[in-house]
Amino acid sequence: AKASAQERICLFEDYMQAEFDDRKALENDLHLALERDEFELYYQAQVEVVTLNLRGLEALVRWNHPTRGQIPPGVFIPIAEEIGLIVELGRKILLTACTEAAKWKQPLKIAVNLSPIQLQAPNIVEIVMGILKDTGLAPERLELEMTETVLLNDRKRVFKILNDLRALGVTIAMDDFGTGYSSLAILRDIPFDTIKLDKSFVRDIALNPEAEALVRLVIDVGNHLGKTVIIEGIETDAQHECIRRIGCQVSQGFLFARPVQASKLDFLHWSDAEL
Ligand code: C2E
Ligand code: CA
Ligand code: CA
Ligand code: CA
């Protein structure tokens, strides 16, 4: 029999209550997770499109939850941002990534994602400077990735922070480029070094001339501005072939490598980079 309207409302309320409880439980667990060190960094290769040499690795955090298993960053990073844990979590991530990268035999780039909230933390420049000093990582090996959403905040202040970070020698990447609200003008205005074109742009690139034209445009603009352009989300040989033809230099995607644990990095075989 069909549930009455009243019954359906009750079911809905139960559902909402369960969602709410689950969310509260995750929030509590996140606090504990920081103390218990349940976070782990995976690393995904950034490769030169023509040679397949490694350009660097992007650090991507996972949460090894004691009972729920591995939780992806898309689930817990937004919660950490909301409950005020992202600054501490982000500092730990940056420290771990720089510590690991300082041990690699090859001086590859290490790219680390920064939450907009982390970027606004009062002493972010000092934090980055301190971590570089403590780990001994050469500043030019560190690339900080951030999305266009940083621009929702006070632009003048954000630009100053980005300039101060670049003055340390680190490079700045605009992540998920093309998915935000902003226009091409940000490429002219923001102090940054690298454009990461979002994976939504390459999905149909091998099938659809319009998609190819857009990617070509971003690569041309990037080249003219002297930026490195990284195309994300390369999954097929056809997509790889296409971006090679267009003249893209660096890309990242499952075709080349999935994100792997630090301990697995030496199982990657690259033409002439040895980790
Ligand atoms: P993102 O920075 O855009 O990272 C790229 C995401 O795309 C990663 O998902 C990666 O596994 C996935 N990816 C890479 N290649 C391919 C591909 O060929 N196809 C497809 N379909 N996906 C691909 P992941 O690791 O789940 O991370 C999701 C997002 O979580 C990241 O997106 C980033 O916004 C955030 N995130 C991850 N680690 C951190 C971190 O340490 N700090 C902060 N603040 N955010 C992080
Ligand atoms: Ca990223
Ligand atoms: Ca991205
Ligand atoms: Ca993303």
TrEMBL record:
Keywords: Membrane, Transmembrane, Transmembrane helix
Domain EAL as annotated: residue spans: 23-273
Name this protein carries in UniProt: EAL domain-containing protein
Organism (species): Paracoccus aestuariivivens
